[in-house]
User: Fold these one by one.
Assistant:
Number 1:
Amino acid sequence: MLEFIILCVIVVVGWFFWKKKRARKHNRATPSVAGRQEPIINDDVPIPVIKRTAPDQAELNLDPLDMPIESEEEQRISAELDAALGALQTEVKDEVAALDIELDALHADAAELDAELVTLKSDVTSFNAELNSLETASHPPLKTNQFPPVVKAESTEETAINETNPDPDSEKAAGSKGEADIMMIAFAVMSQVGRTLSGEAVLNLFSDLDLTFAEGAGFYLKADAGDMENPLFTVANMVTPGTFDPTIFVAETTPGLLLFTRLENDNAAWEKFSAIAETAEELAEQLDGVLCDEQNKAISASRMVEIQNEVAAFVANHG
C-alpha cells in the first residue's frame, strides 16, 4: 500500500513539472515583430525611409492558449498522463474505501470479543461458586465419636470392626478407665480439590512407611518392633466402609485417608502421637494431599503446635 501511494505522488509531481515546462515554452514562443531599422548616419548615403503598415486586426486577436500548437506526441503523452492520474485517483479511492470496510469489521470483532470476555468472567465466577460448594460436599467434617477403635492384628473374624455395634466387653474396658484417661487423636490426608488419591500410589507408600495390612480387619496398622497386638495407630479408607482390599484397591482411587489412635495413661502415649503425626505429614507430602484435623480443616503450623501442646498436657497429667 505504501509503495502504491509513493508511485501516485511521483506521477502527480511529474505531471506538474511537465505542465510547467510546457507553459514556459509557450511564453518563449510568442511571434517576433520586425524592429525598426536604425539608420546609418552617413553624409554621403541617403537614409532610406521604411514605410510600415498597420498589422491586420485578425493577427492581433490571437488566443494565447493556442500558441504554440502542441505536437501529436505531446498531446498523446498529456492524454496518457491524465488517464494514468485519473486511474490512480480512482484506485486510491477504492483502496481507502476497502480499508474503511476492514476497519469497521475490526471494530465489530472487538465488540464481540468484549462481549465474550464479559461472558467468560461470569462463567468463571459461577464455576468458582460451584467448585466451593463441591469442595464442601465432598469433604464433610469428620466426627471423632464415629471413629472405629484401634485395631489389633488377629486372625479371627471376631476382630473385624463394627462401628455401629461395638464389642460390649470393649465398652466396659474403656468405661473402667474413664473418659479422662483416653485422648483420641485423628488426622486426615485429603486429596486436592477436583482430584483423588491413586490406590497404587497409596499402597506403595504404605509399604515404604512400614504399614502392615491387618487381614482380619481390613485396615493398615503401624506397629512398634512388630508388636501387632498393640499397634501405634490405624489407617482407614475414607470410602465406606473404610476398609482396604489390596487386590482391588490397587486399581481404585480414594478421596482421602484417615489415621487415628487412642492415647491412654501409659508411657506409649507420646510415642503414638509422634508416630501418627510424622506418618500423616509424610503421606500428605508424598501424595500431594492436604493434612487436615478431625474437623476436616487444613492443619497449619500453629494448629499443629496447639495439638502437640494438648498431647503434652495429657501426657503430663496421665504419665
Number 2:
Amino acid sequence: MGIVDYVIGRLRVLDASLAGHASYRVVRHSYQQLNARDGQRIAAAVTYFAVFSIFPFILLLISLLSFAIDSRDAQQQVIDLLSGFLPIGATGVQEVIDGVIAARGAAAGLGILLLLWGALGWFESIDQGVNEMWDVKEARPFFIGKLFALGMIGAVGAVMALSWLAGIVVGIVSGLVPSVAGMPPGLLELVISIVSFGLIFLVFLLLYRYSPRCQLSWRDVWLGSLLTAVLWTVVRSAFTIYVTRFADFSSAYGPFAAIIAFLVWLYVTHLVILFGASLTYALRVESQGGDVDGRRAAS
C-alpha cells in the first residue's frame, strides 16, 4: 500500500509541475471533459445508432450512383471510397456491402427516401454527442435537427465525391507523369495520402465548426480539427495493424468477422470524434484564458 501511495503522490507532483504548460492543460482538460460527459457511453450509443443507419447510408450511396453508372460499377466505387477510410480493407468492405445488398436489395424511388430517413439517426446522434462534449444540453428542434443531419449527409457525400474525383485525377496523372517527367511512383502515393488527410481534416473542420450550438469562428476550431485528423489517422493505422496482425476475428465470429471488425472500428472512430470535440472545446477555453475545470466556453 505504501508503494501505491508513493506512486500516486509522485503522479500528483508531476501533474502539478506540468500544469504550467498550456499543451498539457489542454490534453488533461480534454480527457477530463470526455470522462465527465461519459464519452465512452455516448460513443457506444452513437455506434448503436450507426448500426441501424450506416448500412442504409451505404445503400443510399450505391442507389444514387446507380442513376449515373451501372449498379455493379456504383457498388465498386463505394467499396473503393470506403476502403480508403476503413481499416478492414477492400475485401472486408466488399463482404459487408454484399451482405447488406443480399439482405436489403437495391433501392429506388420511395426506397431512397426511406434509406435517407434511416441514415439521419446516425448523424443526429453524432451531432448530439459533439454538443455533449461542449456542455450544450438543449437539443435542436425536431425538424431543425433533421435538416442539420441532412446537411451533414450532404457534406459527407460532397467530401466523398471529392475523394472520388481526386482518385480519378491521380489515376490519370499516374499514367502521364512517369513518361513525361520521370517522377517516382512514391511521390504519387504521397500526394494521395496528403489529399486523403486533407479531406479528413475538412470533415472534422466542418463538424466542429457547425455542430456545437454556440457562436464559433474558424479560428476556434481549425487547430482542434487538425489535431483530431492526425489522431484519427494514427488510430486508423494502429487499428489496421491490430486487425491484420494480432486480432483473429474469424475464429471467434466466423462469417461475421468483417462486420464485427467494422463495428469495433465505428466505436473507436466515435471515441476519436468525441475526444476531438473535447479537445476543440479545451483549446477554446485555453485561448480565452478560461480555467481547466470545465467552465463552458460557449457564448
